[in-house]
């Protein structure tokens, strides 16, 4: 199961809380209640499941690595869709990561509606009423 938390939620509750929300949503989206949950990272959401967090879990635990692949493929597919809507940002190429090309497009065009406005390189450019969001 995969769960996507959009940029507006991330900007509202912060990236850590959004990550916790996504983990909870992914587990709640399973067709069966899990006996045990393994999480990649160093924190667990507040949930009723028996669980363990594993730092660098995607390189240590096969099922975490598989979940990471599912998450990456889900993100890549979203980025390809976003690329169709906003081709000037070339989301299909950088997948939303802060590459030089992505940062150059933000400098040239400003942020679009899927950019996280609380992300420092974007937020530092914004002044109320000055920068238009596409």
Brief overview, please?
By secondary structure, the protein is mainly α. The chain has 6 helices and 2 strands; from the N terminus they run ααββαααα.
- Give start-end ranges of low-pLDDT stretches: none
The separation of the N and C termini measures 31 Å
Tell me the total number of β-strands: 2
The rough form would be described as elongated
The secondary-structure element order is HHEEHHHH
Quaternary state of this entry equals: single chain
- The largest sheet has its strands arranged as 1-2
Radius of gyration, taken over Cα atoms and rounded to an integer in Å: 17 Å
Largest sheet: 2 strands, parallel
What is the arithmetic mean of pLDDT?
A: 93
Fraction of residues in H or I helices = 40-55%
Query: With helices defined by DSSP (H or I, 4 residues minimum), what is the helix count?
Result: 6
Structural class: mainly alpha
SS strand fraction: 5-15%
Describe this structure in words.
With 134 residues, the protein is mainly alpha-helical. Strands 1-2 form a two-stranded parallel sheet. Helix 1 crosses helix 2. The longest helix has 24 residues. It is elongated.
